[in-house]
Amino acid sequence: MNDFNYYCNLYGSDKGDVYPDGNGYAFWYEKWFSSIKEQVTDICEIGVYNGGSTKAFYDYFPNANIIGIDIFDKTEYENDRTITKIVDQSNLEDLDKFITECNEQNLKFDIIIDDGSHDVCHQQLTFGKLFQLVKPGGIYIIEDMCTSYFQEGVVLYGYTQTKLKLDNNTIKFLTERPFSSPWVNLNDSSYIEQNVEYISILDRLNPQCTYLNQFPCVGNFSPRAITSIIKKR
User: Fold this and answer.
1) Distance between terminal CA atoms of the chain?
2) Positive or negative CA dihedral for 212, 214, 216, 220?
3) How confident is the model at residue 213 (pLDDT cuts 50, 70, 90)?
4) Is 122 among the residues known to form the active site?
5) pTM, whole model, 2 decimals?
6) Residue 82: how many CA atoms within 13 Å on its side-chain side?
7) Which positions ≥6 away from 30 have C-beta within 8 Å?
8) pLDDT in tens, 30-48
9) How confident is the prediction for the chain on average, in pLDDT?
10) Does residue 8 contact residue 53 with C-beta atoms inside 8 Å?
11) Which of 15, 74, 108, 118 is catalytic?
12) Which domains does the chain show, CATH number per domain?
């Protein structure tokens, strides 16, 4: 039986270790995914891009329904178990509308994965809002946290790194206590504090990702692949 990395590589997702500058996340995710692959019924991915990872989820989790949310229309990647919605993760109204829709359907997710804008404030804002939609015992993933170390002025997808973002970066948010963020309100911070069982972070040297060289980091750090598993109690 094929592992998650196989499907990521098959469909050109950079979660794999080949295409074209793979981050190598999928091997690490396998530690959590392999024991639950038959039980997972609902997945939400933020950031659909070329549909590679939604296709990988479709094949790897045979009983899962997948919702891909993106700022662009991605209906071309829909199938019998995959739907897409236009949601801007930087927009509170969009996030609240999505939460309302899920609550009306009594829908919670085994896995939510943020592979969206990678902007520090969007990562925290989205986590603060959507963590409530994770099932007890479920997983929330924040990918590509290398942006936590981008130098001021670096621009990715039109979003600029600022001193505020650097001083309150996502890695700091996940590793310092109490949970505190300029983009997460006190109620959501309290919910996070009470419901996070554990956080595991993968931070590894990733020299093959040559595209990262165009985003200089503080201290001239070498390119790194950084992602996280946030387990809900």
Assistant:
1) 30
2) positive
3) confident
4) no
5) 0.97
6) 21
7) 3, 4, 5
8) 999 999 999 999 999 999 9
9) 96
10) yes
11) 118
12) 4-232 (3.40.50.150)
